[in-house]
Amino acid sequence: MRAPIGDFSDVRPAGEALDLLPDPVAAAVRHWAGPVPVEQVVFVDTAPDKADTADFVAAYGTGLLPFSANCVIVAGRRGGETRLAACVVPSASRVDVNGTVRRQLDVRKASFAPLEVAVGETGMEYGGITPIGLPADWPLLVDASLVDLPHVLLGSGRRRGKLIMPGKALSQLTGAEAVEGLGR
Q1: pLDDT tens-digit profile of 10-40?
Q2: pTM for this prediction
Q3: Alpha helix stretches (DSSP H) within the chain
Q4: What CATH number has the domain spanning 11-179?
Q5: Where are the chain's structural domains?
Q6: Torsion of CA 150, 63, 61, 118, to 10 degrees
């Protein structure tokens, strides 16, 4: 099997890589539903020490950067209550936490969630968090530009490996909302 983008030596449908995915991601792949079939979600095996965007594109090709996305966990606070959410933006941009995210979550203050919270609440590894398999009650804010891409390269939930899927599949994930200007 060939990956729809990039040149990877170990490529397989995500459903055949469940043992390489953390439990929440594997469960989401197992129970995948929606207009984009799960067979279009592909796992590519990659080196864990190359998970960060700059290292990844240096090792696997700068041509992947326009298709690469990062998923970050944010914490919004209002009236003593903390609300967690996930934001997916192009890897070459930054999440507009103090503007767009704060307004979308209707909170007074928003910031990146502490590492231990992001890892503990998602069941995923820092540097590999993916929007697939996040807690169902979380808002999932997706930069609208990603939904139009033919393919998006995302973390797999671990630092080892990546997932590739059609951009339009991002909008079918639980809690997903396409947001203009999420990444700047």
Answers
A1: 999 999 999 999 999 999 999 998 899 999 9
A2: 0.94
A3: 23-30, 53-60, 102-105, 115-122, 144-147
A4: 3.90.960.10
A5: 11-179
A6: -50
